[in-house]
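Just scan this pair:

***
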Amino acid sequence: MESVARSTATVGGGAGENRLELCGQHFQMPVHYPRYSQADYETMPEWKLDCLLAEYGLPVSGDVQQKRKFAMGAFLWPR
């Protein structure tokens, strides 16, 4: 199996710059469906949402609330 190279990008500016590790450079369909609950998505940090959406080849745009709403719509199944 091919390993995925990871790179680092700087997010933000000024003295409070944050380092964000990107999840990969190429889309590859993940083997497993994410198993997060609605509570997990509601508290998930933005960098993790970005990583999850990018892993599935989904758009990573908008603010953190829009990303959470999109992820919940894409990955949570109605009961």
Observations:
- Strands lie at 8-11, 18-21.
- Confidence is low (pLDDT under 50) at residues 1-21.
- The two ends are 36 Å apart (CA to CA).
